[in-house]
Every structure is written in C-alpha cells, then in structure tokens.
Amino acid sequence: MAGSKCSFKECNRKELRQLLCRSHLEQHDRGQGLTPIPARNPKGTLCLLEDCNEEASPQTVFCFFHLDQKRHSRPFRPRSSNLRVGAASVRNQAGEKRCPRCDRWLVEEQFYNCNSTRDKLQTYCKQCYRDAWLMLRFKMTQSDYERVLESQGGGCSICHTKDTGSKPSFSIDHDRLCCPGDKACEKCVRGILCTRCNTGLGQARDDVEILTSMIGYLNYWRKTNA
C-alpha cells in the first residue's frame, strides 16, 4: 500500500518492497537477521572528537575523516587546519599531492585520473583507492586478495595464466546466486580470474549446462575437422 511503513518493529521508514524499508530489505537480501537501523544524525551534528569542526557522518558520531581512521584501527589525528580532504590544488615543495586517507605525500603518478576533480586526479592514492574499492565491493582487504591469488599459484584460478588480460589486475569472481549485483558478501567470493575467464563465465550466466554444452560443441567440431 502506498505510503505504508516498514513492518520491522520500531522502524518508521517508508516501505520499499516486501513490507520492508530499503535498509531492512538489504539485510534480508544478504541473509542476515533483521536488526534496528541506527538513527541518522540531524544535519549539522559535529564530530565527537574535540577540536574537530567537521560534520559527523549520518549514522556515526565521527566525521568521515575520523571514521576512516577508526575503521582501519589507526590512531586519531587532527585534520590539518589549512588542508581539507579533496583540496586538489595543495602541493608540497616537491610538487607532491597528499592522500588524506594514508596521510602520505606522493607524486601525481600515484593517483588515478579523474575528470570530475579540479586537478583531474582522484582524491585518494591508488593504493588507498583500491583498498576502499575491495572493501566496498567484496568485503576484502588487499592482504585477502594477495592471499587468495598466492593460493592459486599467482595466476587465474581457471586457466592458470599470469596475464591479467585487458585490465591491470585480475578480476574477483563471486557467486551471483548469492549476491546478484556487483557487490559480494564474505561468503560468495569464489576466486580470482583473468579478464577472459571472468567474462566467459558471465556470458555463460554461470550455467553449468551451457558450459557443458559448449565443451561438447568444441569436442564435436575438433573430431569432425581432425
């Protein structure tokens, strides 16, 4: 019914589908038990740390700068008074750009290109950008990625090539029966593949019957043309 509320107790959010709001529906789709969603901070709520005048993230007591430090078990450090995250024009005397996540000054080649920023470079360095991407998409760290790749002999889990293909790094394959979208949970990451094998599985829609039929097709024509 239009305008109905989420069926989870004490949740006043608007129903999206299956009598659940968006947040509880995401919990349901991930197979998790439904839990209360933390209340969003009123706009203008400041970070809990002293001498930090940044606005807190919607569902925590920290600003995004200090929340990132907390998630990575780093000691809290103050934000520089004359430097903000994303201050693209700031460079040190060596012409290096600062990554606000790891707090390192790096040459511009250590940042990916980005057409939407003033200096045409990503805010975070390549290492931090990849760390954030791995955690967001696959709930993995770079150490997890390297451990899985090493367990596969340093190459693709299917064809064993060490050539990544058209991309600079190997692709991470996950079971889309578990997580149908581009993001994966901790359970459904299957392995690390080269671009060609990962694309092949996707084109076959992970269907064993289609893949088996493809093998039969190839064997038939090899015997026919032998």
Compact overview of the structure:
The protein has 226 residues and is mainly alpha-helical. 29% of the residues lie in helices and 7% in strands.
Explained architecture:
- Among the domains are: 45-76, no CATH class; 88-138, no CATH class; 154-208, no CATH class.
- The model is unreliable at 81-86 (pLDDT under 50).
- It contains six helices and four strands; from the N terminus they run H-H-E-E-H-H-E-E-H-H.
- Strands 1-2 form a two-stranded antiparallel sheet. A two-stranded antiparallel sheet has the order 3-4.
- The protein starts with 21 loop residues before the first helix and ends with a helix.
- The protein is flat and about 75 Å long.
- The longest helix is centred in the last third of the chain and has 17 residues, at 208-224.
- A hairpin with a 4-residue loop joins strand 1 (97-99) and strand 2.
- It has 226 residues and is mainly alpha-helical.
Net shape: flat
| Largest sheet entry | 2 strands, antiparallel
Radius of gyration over alpha carbons?
23 Å
Structural class: mainly alpha
- Poorly predicted runs of 5 or more residues: 81-86
**Quaternary structure of the protein:** single chain
Could you give the order of strands across the largest sheet?
A: 1-2
The H/E string reads: HHEEHHEEHH
Number of strands: 4
Strand portion: 5-15%
Helix and strand arrangement:
Blueprint: H1 22-29, H2 64-71, E1 97-99, E2 104-106, H3 126-138, H4 142-151, E3 171-174, E4 189-193, H5 195-203, H6 208-224
Antiparallel strand pairs: 1-2, 3-4
Name some characteristics of this structure.
about 230 residues, mainly alpha, two-stranded antiparallel ribbon, two-stranded antiparallel sheet, 6 helices, 4 strands, about 30% helix, flat
